[in-house]
Amino acid sequence: MKTKELVDRLDELLGTGRFEEIDSSANGLQIGTGEGTVSHVVFAEDASMETIEDAASIGADMMVVHHGITWGDIDRITGINYNRIQALIGSGISLYVSHLPLDAHQELGNAAGLAKILELEEREPFGRLGTEFIGIMGKVKNPCTPERLRSFLAGELDTGDGGVKLLNFGVEEITKIGIVTGAGGDWLGEAVEKELDVFITGEGKARIYHEAKELGMNVVLAGHYATETFGVFSLEKIVSEWGIKTTCISYPTGL
Q1: What does the alpha-carbon distance between residue 206 and residue 194 come to, in Å, rounded to a whole number?
Q2: CB 145 within 8 A of CB 114
Q3: Are 4 and 36 in contact (CB under 8 A)?
Q4: Is residue 118 predicted with pLDDT exceeding 90?
Q5: How far apart are CA 254 and CA 114, in angstroms?
Q6: pTM check: above 0.90
Q7: How far is Cα 7 from Cα 46, in angstroms, rounded to an integer?
């Protein structure tokens, strides 16, 4: 498939253009000319040297990742950025990035993947950011305790050595859940406003402990990496169906 066609398809599928004003990540084709063809795409959470080197070793010509290289802050190409960009260009690998568009997608995104594992019903968009929503909320089929929810996620997610943490400051019967994956602590207040029973995210700043306690809200911290692999792996299945060879690479960080 021509590179431009693949990029255009992904941009349309993910609604990339809607996030230009609210995402610091440079989404879409981040490195590459957009010319030529793509025959083998690697999907990974992060554009790190490990994933880039793995992609090069198996002859991939494009990577699709959630966390790219530039967040609108590259003034000089030195250090880590130089090494990563040099490795990509030297290996002839284009880099496609989807950050908030892949968080927000209500069917293919990260929160959507977690919602499917939890079998949430009556799903609605959650986690407002500007005019968009980057998370999902819904109801569980069978109410459970906060600890049972934590234990279930610990068994389902690849958290490395990080585990799943519970801030048990709310109700003891979980029915309504809100999800914003990654570093979603800023949406704790919205979870309270929506009268949810638990807020699930990947990681939180230190203040989330006291905020959750004072607000009387249960919070599950299930790992930034572990909650954000759903999106890229969902994309892998779709691109594979488009007739392109695909490979998934996973390096759980435990964070």
Answers
A1: 23
A2: no
A3: no
A4: yes
A5: 17
A6: yes
A7: 18
